[in-house]
Design a protein that fits this description.
Length: about 260
């Protein structure tokens, strides 16, 4: 994931252990289309497998995180085109990334843009962010998990209202309703805040971070009892890691832990 090798993205490593992916399709407000996803998936995978990287930030511009799927690319598709080619399946590869991903949302995050932001592990936004699932206005419905993730995040009644009306949700309200973890006053502060959090995550044991992300994600799929049992197994497993010995010994010796990520 070297700088400058992408057409629709900017890919950089601005902080120790942190990969930053910025959508760069300004003329179409970062509308999402297949060539962009080929690049996004390649960039995410490169960071996920890089030993240098501990966490990632995904962002757009001040005007738009992403204004949705590219309507011009989609408009002439038939059912057979969409179903036959599993249209947008590869748009959800973000879900298979093992390292934490933070979405820093400024401007429009509509339709697929909102869905992609919600696939991240932590969402941040600025007061100027605008979330929405406007698919109903185009004669369709959310197609990349919006109906499920938005409903879990903000509750059925509000999600239903947004999805049935196509109305937007402001950055401020996204914070109040718990869609995002934090709301910042400006776009720059939002990206910087996401980079700060990513840098902090990247400073910990990669093994523990991976396990923490995995167990929290399981809470979305499992019942509470199975989830707690799963968590305990993973917790026990971490006593087999070097980093558990390093972290706990460092505390006892009042030293800073030097992780080996093993
Ligand atoms: N697709 C294609 N082009 C777009 C899109 C889009 N979603 N959004 C904006 N653009 C283009 C415009 O056509 C325009 O291009 P041009 O200059 O060539 O005319 C350029 O971006 C700038 O846009 P506007 O002039 O419209 O800018 P405004 O500031 O006036 O308005 C809005 C901004 C309100 C965001 C407006 O552009 C808009 O309503 N866009 C469409 C929003 C939308 O409906 N999004 C949902 C799309 S459906 C969807 O996402 C289905 C999800 C499927 C799964 C996705 C998996 C991840």
């Amino acid at each position: 994931a070297s700088e400058g090798s992408y057409e629709h993205l900017k890919v950089t490593t601005p902080r120790p252990g942190v990969g930053l992916i910025t959508f760069n399709r300004p003329k179409a407000l970062n509308a999402l289309f297949t060539p962009l996803f080929h690049e996004l998936n390649a960039a995410l995978r490169a960071f996920d497998s890089s030993p240098e990287i501990g966490a990632m930030v995904l962002t757009g511009s001040e005007k738009a995180f992403a204004a949705g799927a590219d309507i011009k690319e989609m408009k002439d598709k038939t059912f057979a085109d969409a179903y036959g080619a599993d249209f947008i399946e590869m748009w959800s590869d973000l879900m298979h990334i093992k390292k934490p991903v933070i979405s820093a949302v400024n401007g429009y995050a509509l339709g697929g843009g909102c869905e992609l932001a919600m696939m991240a592990d932590i969402m941040y936004c600025s007061v100027g962010a605008t979330f929405g699932q406007p698919e109903i206005k185009l004669g369709v419905i959310p197609g990349a998990g919006g109906s499920q993730r938005l409903t879990r995040a903000i509750g059925k009644s509000k999600a239903m209202e947004l999805i049935l009306t196509g109305n937007n949700l402001s950055g401020k309200e996204a914070g109040e309703r718990g869609l995002v973890a934090k709301v910042f006053d400006s776009a720059q502060e939002c990206v910087d805040g996401a980079l700060d959090t990513a840098e902090k995550i990247a400073s910990y044991s990669r093994i523990a971070v991976k396990a923490a992300k995995e167990v929290v994600n399981k809470s979305q799929d499992l019942g509470v009892r199975e989830g707690i049992e799963f968590e305990r197994r993973v917790f026990h497993g971490l006593f087999g890691s070097k980093d558990q010995k390093i972290g706990m010994s460092a505390f006892a010796e009042k030293k800073k832990p030097q992780w080996t990520h093993e």
